Amino acid sequence: MQTGKLIVFSAPSGSGKTTIVKHLLKQPELNLEFSVSATSRPIRGDEKEGKDYYFLSAEEFKMKIKNDEFLEWEEVYRDNFYGTLKTEVERIWSLGKHVIFDIDVSGGLRIKRKYPDLTLAVFVKPPSIDELKIRLKKRKTEDEDKINMRIAKASAELATAPLFDVTIENDKLEHALDEAYDTVNDFLNSEKDNGIKK
Fold first, then answer.
1. Rounded to an integer, what distance in angstroms lies between the CA atom of residue 36 and that of residue 29?
2. pLDDT tens, N- to C-terminus, the chain (198 residues)
3. CA distance 86 to 110
4. Taking the alpha carbons of 173, 179, 183, 185 in that order, is the dihedral positive or negative?
5. How far, in Å, are 10, 11, 88, 159 from residue 26 at the CA level?
6. What is the chain's percent helix, strand, coil content, to nearest 5?
7. DSSP letter, residue 64
8. What is the DSSP letter of 29?
9. How far apart, in Å, do the first and last CA atoms of the chain sit?
10. Structure letter (DSSP) for residue 78
């Protein structure tokens, strides 16, 4: 199978990586397709199976781990799993596209380790932890305890930024979008293209 490149966007929750990824997906010349993650958490709001996530039970998820069906996976909280199915990357490559991930920090680094030459790993950094807390509260999707848990996790995640190829600070969204576009575009057009030709 012909292989494309892998573009990983990782960040603490609330940093704006999802907004950046959605923006990049709207640029047809980049030829990107979103990698839908699998999760064992329940569906939230108007989320759709196969579009937002592949929703599995914790038992199904554990069985797929046992069968080595994941490119990467993590148990974020007890029995709350997230991961990337190998079949998802193969699905996108079979379309002749590059894969873009909106994924947590440890998952992003695992993909980079697995495909070092094919992967661009981008870390999206919030201007500060205080700003991150404000953004998470504005979402109104989680209670105070969950937010505090995310903030504690964010401090540890920020320490991993140097392990990524590029760090983009999302202080002003317009600047972050431009920087992300230029970074991804340069990588896709670089000489290291042993995958899909434009």
1. 21
2. 568 999 999 998 888 899 999 999 999 999 999 999 999 999 999 999 999 999 999 999 999 999 999 999 999 878 899 999 999 999 999 999 999 999 989 999 999 999 999 999 999 998 888 888 888 888 877 788 888 888 888 888 999 999 999 999 999 999 999 999 999 999 999 865 444 443
3. 13
4. positive
5. 19, 20, 20, 31
6. 45, 20, 35
7. H
8. G
9. 17
10. T
- Alpha helix stretches (DSSP H) within 27-126: 58-66, 86-94, 105-114
Domain boundaries, the chain: 6-188
H helix or E strand, kind and range, residue 75 = strand 70-77
Checking DSSP bridges between strand 6-10 and strand 80-85, what pairing results, if any?
Answer: unpaired
Overall CATH class of domain 6-188: alpha beta
Provide the residue count of the chain. Answer: 198
